[in-house]
Amino acid sequence: MLDSHQHFWKIARGDYGWMGPHVAPLLRDFLPDDLRPLMAKAGITRTIVVQAAETEAETDFLLDLAANTDFIAGVVGWLDMDDAAFPERLAHYRKNPYFVGLRPMLQGLEDDAYILRPRVLKHLGLVAEAGLAFDILTFTRHLPHVAKALAATPGLRAVVDHISKPEIAAGNLDPWRERIAEIAAFPNVSCKVSGMVTEASPDGWTLEQLRPYVDHVAKVFGPERLMFGSDWPVATLAASYGEVNDAARTLLEAHFGIEDMAKIFETNAATFYRVDGEATAT
Fold first, then answer.
1. What span, in angstroms and rounded, lies between the C-alpha atoms of 197 and 202?
2. Looking at residues 105-114, what average pLDDT do you find?
3. 5 touches 50 (CB < 8 A)
4. In the prediction, which pLDDT does 51 show?
5. Taking the mean position of all CA atoms in its chain, how far away is CA 114?
6. Residues 257, 278: Cα–Cα separation, whole Å
């Protein structure tokens, strides 16, 4: 199986601006040897590691890990999409075979419509031309802006992270339900079944809390455009690696058979990130 979304970090690197006392259990290093036994127990053999800091140093850090870790299939990095030098930086990183995608952290930016800034939109077109994957990290309020950006960038291969973080704790399906369906109408957009447990009640989550959200993305994206992601170690604020895997499997099995589940838990992510072969790092 392929985990389409996990993170690594070394606290001493010092560029994780989102960290603080509110996520105290995460304020330590999380590295490949921490994840390896958890993957083995869950039957997962490869991962896509996704940036957790808004710096090129983060991208370099993850690419170095990928080159030295046998199970990392690819890296979704970060580049400044509103920088005039973006085309040159993109060309530089494209030379690295582990650089499979790009993610601006839209959810934390002051400008909800950042993705529609003229220079950002122009550079999004370069991402599409390069054939790279684009990860969409958003809350529900960002989705109308994302829809406009997708309409302006035909051919972009994009994936919504964490089903766009609906208000699971409050039990609110709307307006997320309609807005995520609008995003699903773009045929080149996929969705990660990930990041849900940390959006549920701080007092604990249940499968029944998560079920209506999974039911909806199962309906609007279908088995060809869903992929499993653990969001480890962020998810450990609410659940173990195995519990996240088991929850996704239980909820998705209500909709899909063995062949489709194989797509969601491996093939779709491998195809989307173009990592169809085995990871070859040593």
1. 9
2. 97
3. yes
4. 98
5. 19
6. 25
Enumerate domains of the chain plus CATH numbers.
2-272 (3.20.20.140)
29 residue type, one letter? D
Alpha carbons within 13 A on the beta-carbon side of 58: 25
Type of residue found at 273 = Y
What the block records as the tokens of 202 is: 């701080």
Q: Which of 130-134, 201-205, 249-253 has the lowest mean pLDDT?
A: 201-205
Q: Is the confidence at residue 244, as pLDDT, over 60?
A: yes
Which residue type sits at 175?
A: P
- Statement: residue 282 has pLDDT above 60: no
CA atoms of 222 and 78, how far apart (whole Å): 28
Kindly indicate the confidence band of residue 140, based on its pLDDT and cuts at 50, 70 and 90. Answer: very high
- The DSSP code sequence of the chain is -EEEEE--B-GGG---TT-SGGGGGG-S-B-HHHHHHHHHHHT--EEEEE--SSSHHHHHHHHHHHHT-TTEEEEEE---TTSTTHHHHHHHHHTSTTEEEE---GGG-S-TTGGGSHHHHHHHHHHHHHT-EEEE---GGGHHHHHHHHHHSTT-EEEEGGGG---TTTT--TTHHHHHHHHHTSTTEEEEE-S-GGGS-TT---HHHHHHHHHHHHHHH-TTSEEE---BTGGGGT--HHHHHHHHHHHHHTT--HHHHHIIIIIHHHHHTT--SPP---
Residue 278: which pLDDT band, with cuts at 50, 70 and 90?
low
- C-alpha dihedral (181, 185, 5, 96), degrees to nearest 10: -160
Compute the Cα dihedral for 274, 119, 154, 167 and give only its sign: positive
Measured CA to CA, the distance from residue 127 to residue 111 in angstroms comes to 21
Residues 6+ apart with CB under 8 A from 243: 197
Residue type, 19: M
